[in-house]
């Protein structure tokens, strides 16, 4: 099991930030803004999924997960709070979050559904965030710009990497089937990528940079260049479909190294 520490990030998100906070790059800014717009709703769903999945465990298995579930919930709740503050600034900049209400409508369809499906959906999403987190920690210069926001995204990435096995292990402990796991990954992939594209394009349109050549040039390099997001993450995404897959097989030291090197930027508040 993983010891998950809840951390309070020591940055001031009350102050505004530049419209193109990510190194002046319109596309990168729009994409990260889109992802942030999904986080408060998504992370609340992850919290509810893991909490309710934990309650469904037999008493004999609960003790094994208790501390890790508490740490997972604490970390995700902190992420949700900070990204809500971040998203408030985006709203003031004139951006409109269409992703969150669309996600809320979808989630209503899951009411009354076996919680193992909720946990399977969470595990699939956590795999996405974990591989994105590893990629960001490895290519952290792509977040250069506002130092507060770079710290926020890398802190978030480090913690996502830390708890990437929690929902997966809980799903296995609940007796979740392999077919459910891969079916939900396929569905989550389609929904997640579709929503990311829609919200990114919407952000660019409202920003007035959708049809600029520099925007599309940046997109091509960021997604498909030598260290492009899609180019480098297709293989780790695909590994999820193996029957013997476990998130720990994609472990690296990047998360623990960032947390160790940046201890002055947060304070532990318990697990």
Shape assignment: globular
Our count of helices gives: 10
How helix-rich are the residues, as a percent range? 55-70%
Measured between the Cα atoms of the first and last residue, the distance is 13 Å
- What's the assembly state of these chains? single chain
Structural write-up:
There is one protein chain. With 271 residues, the protein is mainly alpha-helical. The chain has one domain (25-210, 236-262). It is 67% helix and 3% strand. It has ten helices and two strands; from the N terminus they run βααααααααααβ. The protein has helices at residues 26-55, 59-92, 99-108, 115-138, 147-162, 166-173, 178-207, 213-224, 229-238, 254-261; strands at 6-9, 266-270. A two-stranded antiparallel sheet has the order 1-2.
List keywords for this structure.
two-stranded antiparallel ribbon, mainly alpha, 10 helices
Element layout with pairings:
Layout: E1 6-9, H1 26-55, H2 59-92, H3 99-108, H4 115-138, H5 147-162, H6 166-173, H7 178-207, H8 213-224, H9 229-238, H10 254-261, E2 266-270
Antiparallel strand pairs: 1-2
Short description:
The protein is mostly helical. It has helices spanning 26-55, 59-92, 99-108, 115-138, 147-162, 166-173, 178-207, 213-224, 229-238, 254-261; strands spanning 6-9, 266-270.
